[in-house]
């Protein structure tokens, strides 16, 4: 038998396969750490947006008017139903082609009653919904 030095094709393919597995594992670890850093900033920006909208609604109620109409484009911002305020979305929610983001609030009138039958004014309940690139807050 001849004594040849070198590698066979099978040994070369196995070495390349092992290198590819190691590179894939390193890449997935880097992507996971990137997501762990970026996601909290998305949620933080979304929370600031929700707080801003909630403060605008509160100011509208307290002052019996305000900038809520211009912010959300509704002439009756506290009427029952869903109101779209997607213009207030932060820039991180407007990334990518065909992004799936929305900011709405829903107003529903609740009627409070008591046992005496006395007149009790209706109370509006406001629920804010935000979706940022498919992630619901």
Commentary on this structure:
The chain has 137 residues and is an alpha+beta fold. Helices cover 44% and strands 20% of the residues. It contains two helices and four strands. Strands 1-2-3-4 form a four-stranded antiparallel β-sheet, with helices on one face. Strand 3 and strand 4 form a beta hairpin. It starts with 8 loop residues before the first helix and ends with a strand. 11% of the residues are buried. The mean pLDDT is 78.
In short:
By secondary structure, this protein is α+β, with helices and mostly antiparallel strands.
Total beta strand runs: 4
Shape from CA axes?
A: rod-shaped
Q: Let me know the average pLDDT.
A: 78
Major sheet: order of its strands?
Answer: 1-2-3-4
Amino- and carboxy-terminal Cα gap = 71 Å
One letter per element, helices H and strands E, the order comes to HHEEEE
As a whole number of angstroms, the C-alpha radius of gyration is 28 Å
Structural class, by secondary structure, is: alpha+beta
Spans where pLDDT lies below 50 across 5 or more residues: none
Number of helices: 2
Helix content: 40-55%
Tell me the fraction of residues in β-strands, as a range. 15-25%
Largest sheet: 4 strands, antiparallel
Give the helices and strands, then pairings.
Layout: H1 9-63, H2 68-72, E1 81-84, E2 102-111, E3 122-132, E4 135-136
Antiparallel strand pairs: 1-2, 2-3, 3-4
